[in-house]
């Protein structure tokens, strides 16, 4: 995270201000801002979302089985035999 923060802050500061005066002061401040944002995101937000999804919407959330709305077909009904459909294209008439 530190290397990514340093690379992002270096790119941002050099693009916006160049290598003029107070370059290292701006670089240090920008580094800590990027480091803080990445640390909070990847060490706090992502694990919390994973935990919340597992506990709030995990296996216990879908444990109830829903019964089908229609009755199952009885075995006494005979199956009807259907002829296969014929396709006729408009060019072969």
Q: Could you report the average pLDDT, rounded to the nearest whole number?
A: 82
Largest sheet: none
Helix fraction bin = 40-55%
Give the total of beta strands. 0
Beginning-to-end CA distance, first to last residue: 71 Å
Protein architecture, described:
The protein is an all-alpha fold and 93 residues long. The chain has two helices and no strands. It has helices at 2-16, 23-56. The longest helix has 34 residues, at 23-56. The N and C termini lie far apart (71 Å).
Layout: helices, strands, pairs:
Layout: H1 2-16, H2 23-56
Question: How would you describe this structure in keywords?
Answer:
93 residues, mainly alpha, 2 helices, 53% helix, 0% strand
Task: Provide a concise account of the structure shown.
The chain has 93 residues and is mainly α. The longest helix has 34 residues.
